[in-house]
């Protein structure tokens, strides 16, 4: 970006109205369906997915607004789409982290997990929220028309994305080790065909891969800088950000882990009952 306010450009291209409208609508449909699923199954840990979906909708709608404002663009839609599209994946990731803990509890597999169930969600969700706020802060700075401030913001975002990739790598390692241990010495609960724990672990791997690919491409984008190939061409945003994030949401529209939520709630109630009995 130029430091000269007269030549400053919010985008390096004219944002596509058609693409913005299509993806805003698709994210809208997926978000509505997730809202229905949450209301039906009481899966409140999927609320971050709803918020992430709303961020995606507003982000792409803002790009559509920018298209309509051309050539006299205002900064508000640009800042909105920059911030919301940047941090939305962290919200989707939060729900993915919580699914693993419910799978582990449902098949009585805590002994096979690298992290105890009481800490599993706390460790990953807290770390995820850290990357969320780091990227949010960086995005706010990057939206500045001041070149130095904008560069600082991009460096902060880069740090947040790298932390996110490390956390995701560790998460996948935890899930994979649990998976291998459970296959080697399965628990009685894991053998029940009503609980397709292995199928949902594969779904976690796939959705994690979508977010990981998106984050890696974003890292490359910020390493290249404001004159890099990725930031200069809108197609990369849609292919490596919009499509993978929509794929995450649609995957869970189709394969929804509601059964594990119910089983996990029951297991937690039983654990609490056992503690009360021991205390008598």
Account of the 3D structure:
With 280 residues, the chain is mainly alpha-helical. Helices cover 78% and strands 0% of the residues. The protein contains 9 helices and no strands. Helix 1 runs parallel beside helix 8. Residues 1-7 and 271-280 have low confidence and may be disordered.
List the helices and strands and how they pair.
Elements: H1 17-41, H2 47-69, H3 75-106, H4 117-142, H5 147-184, H6 197-224, H7 229-232, H8 234-254, H9 258-278
Helix pairs in contact: 1-2, 1-8, 2-3, 3-4, 3-5, 3-6, 3-9, 4-5, 5-6, 6-8
Question: What's the short version?
Answer:
This protein is mainly alpha-helical and 280 residues long. 78% of the residues lie in helices and 0% in strands.
List the defining traits of the structure above.
mainly alpha, 9 helices, elongated, disordered N terminus, disordered C terminus
């Amino acid at each position: 970006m130029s430091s000269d306010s007269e030549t400053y450009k919010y985008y390096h291209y004219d944002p596509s109205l058609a693409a913005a409208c299509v993806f805003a609508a698709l994210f809208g449909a997926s978000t509505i369906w997730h809202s229905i699923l949450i209301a039906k199954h009481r899966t409140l840990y999927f609320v971050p997915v709803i918020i992430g979906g709303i961020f995606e909708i507003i982000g792409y709608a803002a790009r559509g607004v920018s298209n309509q404002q051309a050539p006299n663009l205002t900064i508000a839609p640009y800042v909105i789409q920059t911030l919301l599209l940047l941090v939305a994946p962290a919200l989707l990731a939060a729900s993915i982290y919580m699914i693993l803990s419910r799978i582990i509890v449902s098949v009585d597999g805590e002994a096979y997990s690298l992290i105890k169930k009481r800490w599993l969600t706390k460790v990953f969700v807290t770390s995820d929220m850290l990357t969320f706020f780091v990227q949010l802060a960086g995005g706010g700075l990057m939206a500045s028309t001041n070149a130095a401030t904008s560069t600082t913001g991009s460096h902060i975002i880069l740090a947040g994305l790298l932390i996110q990739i490390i956390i995701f790598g560790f998460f996948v390692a935890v899930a994979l080790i649990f998976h291998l241990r459970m296959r080697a010495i399965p628990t009685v609960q894991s053998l029940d065909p009503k609980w397709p724990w292995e199928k949902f672990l594969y779904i976690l791997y796939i959705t994690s891969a979508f977010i990981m690919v998106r984050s890696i491409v974003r890292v490359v984008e910020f390493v290249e800088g404001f004159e890099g190939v990725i930031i200069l061409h809108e197609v990369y945003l849609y292919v490596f950000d919009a499509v993978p994030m929509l794929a995450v949401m649609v995957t869970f529209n189709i394969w929804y882990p509601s059964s594990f939520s119910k089983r996990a709630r029951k297991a937690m109630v039983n654990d609490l009952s056992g503690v009360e009995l021991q205390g008598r």
